[in-house]
Amino acid sequence: MYGYAGKLLYVDLTSGGFKEVTLDKSFARNYMGGPGFGAKILYEELKPGVDPLSEESVLVVAGGPLCGLPFMGSGRTTFIAKSPLTGGWMHSNMGGSFSASMKFGGYDAIVIKGKAKEPVILKIDNGNVEMIPAEELWGKGAIEAQELFKERQGKDYDTFAIGPAGENLVRYACILGSGARAAGRGGLGAVMGAKRLKLVAIRGRGKVEVADRQAFEELRRSFTSAITQKLANYTKYGTPFLVNIINEVHGGLGTRNWQEEVFEGAKGISGETFRERHFIRNTACFACPVACSKVFKSLRNPEVTSEGPEYESIYSLGSMCGIDDASVLIEADRKCDECGLDTISAGVSIAFLMECYEKGILSKGDLDGIDARFGNGEALLELLDKIAKRDGIGDLLAEGTKRMAERIGKDTWKFAMHVRGLELPGHSPRVLKVMAIGYALSNRGGSHHDPRPGPEYAMPPEEKKKIEGKAKLNYEINLWTTIGDSLITCHFAENVLGTTLNEKHLTLINSVTGFALSLEELRNIAHRIYTLERCFNIREKRLAKEEDTLPWRILNERIPNGPAAGFGVTSEELEVMLKESYLLRGWDERGIPRAEELKRLGLDFAIDDMESVRRG
């Protein structure tokens, strides 16, 4: 089948057995890949109400039709499971090359079930599947474990692994691939840890065929030329170049747990500072000439290097915690990688703790003697260690801000910065209304990859304040990001094709797959996938509109200073955007997909579940 390896691999860690299933062409056409595959597989394979950290949970590792092709941004891999952090839908992407190696090894997706009796490694060598003991790697850092495996088994394996945070079931533990590329969000590393799966390795000698090589090559050449020019700042600085722009121009850099949105220490942790003082080299994902990832070194401890931090990590570990020392952030980023921690959730959780400490809600004694004030870099580093081990106050931090606020009480929920339990990333919903409605409707929660901030950053300030047209823009962006995630490709790269679905996307997909899709069909594929993710959430939580909201602080406090002083979003404005969004998507007034829309999308199997929730 053009664009696909043609098989799915199902692995049962409990029995040690596995089976191969031929990829059905209609399944590929209707769900494309990545989270599309994951949504259908998870809806069918996972019983409602299953604990994501139980033996019955399911983890899907998926590629898409672009993976393994020489197309920029195509090296990404998607992981899909029920989230231990949010209790709902989660998919998380990592860069690198694992999805390409998975395709070369013969598989479009790996579906992992069950729980091993002892820690194991899943090793796949040109279709030969085996589980080998991982006792020697258990307890090792995620990067170290992969290095040790490759020394013993072969450098040509592509791998991903978890660190101690995943083993200790930290609810936002991440999965690390080769080169410290992280599938960071939602705690999918804890799903691996609960299954006692330390590492997955694959290698293969296959190749991926395309339907129309000439059309594909013509688009690829023009795309590559355009992207290297458009993303020149990413090549030079990486995503850290956004720090000064978002702070100084837009006034939307979350600071000290979003009490402010301008950070006075931003220059110390800007892309320019990282480049001038800490830069070692560029690194790149599979088939990518931009090389936006950077390896940096700490000046405090020159032996410490990290592939990162990226912008989101600088925001969460830096401005959110009031820390302006780039060396501390490099050390913190490396620590998160080795421990296997999502930098966004870890940093935002620590920022929440710091605000509790500074307000006198928690004492130094409550925090194991740590002086957890904003700006204390040593406290940040110590708390990260404690989170990974679930040691002392780290056991509370390991639960994420939603559960932390529930346990602490005293109205701390008002400044717990999450949506659906997933901590907010570094793009302000008070400055950007598209992000406000985008976060509220994101199936994952506080994710900036379902909405995207780029189109609204380009608007003048007065246009940003308006809610008119923002629900429609977010809907169009959602269709685009859903297809991009399902191909799978990098959103930085893909936006050269346009930030809404268009004929260029169609040419790319049809030249690879031969599906001969129309633009309307492509839009329906995106809407089908996003709606099925929504159905999964509703079936799991029996909630719809109740979760479509934003943190209290965002809805009730205005930005106090800076270029966006006075900006905000109210509950009333959010309500208007929600009503428009539901109408656009064929959902009812509670945000539950209507039966007729599910039928139109070919999701008849979800109708009874949605009607059950609708009836209460």
CATH superfamily of the largest domain: Aldehyde ferredoxin oxidoreductase, N-terminal domain
The unreliable regions are none
Distance between the ends: 44 Å
Strand tally, please? 17
Gyration radius, rounded: 22 Å
Describe the strand arrangement of the main beta sheet, using strand numbers. 2-1-6-3-4-5
What is the fold-level CATH name, i.e. the topology of the largest domain?
Answer: Aldehyde Ferredoxin Oxidoreductase,  A, domain 1
What is the name of the CATH architecture of the largest domain? 4-Layer Sandwich
What attributes characterize this protein structure?
616 residues; Aldehyde Ferredoxin Oxidoreductase,  A, domain 1; Aldehyde Ferredoxin Oxidoreductase Protein, subunit A, domain 2; Aldehyde Ferredoxin Oxidoreductase Protein, subunit A, domain 3; six-stranded mixed sheet; 27 helices; 43% helix
Strand and helix map with partners:
Blueprint: E1 7-12, E2 17-22, H1 25-31, H2 34-45, E3 59-62, E4 77-82, E5 89-94, H3 98-104, E6 109-113, E7 120-125, E8 128-133, H4 142-153, E9 158-161, H5 164-167, E10 175-177, E11 182-183, H6 188-194, E12 197-203, H7 213-230, H8 232-237, H9 242-250, H10 271-278, E13 279-283, E14 293-297, E15 305-307, H11 311-317, H12 326-339, H13 343-358, H14 377-389, H15 393-397, H16 401-408, E16 418-419, E17 422-423, H17 433-441, H18 454-457, H19 461-465, H20 470-487, H21 491-494, H22 503-513, H23 519-541, H24 552-556, H25 571-585, H26 595-600, H27 607-615
Parallel strand pairs: 1-6, 7-12
Antiparallel strand pairs: 1-2, 3-4, 3-6, 4-5, 7-8, 9-10, 9-12, 10-11, 13-14, 14-15, 16-17
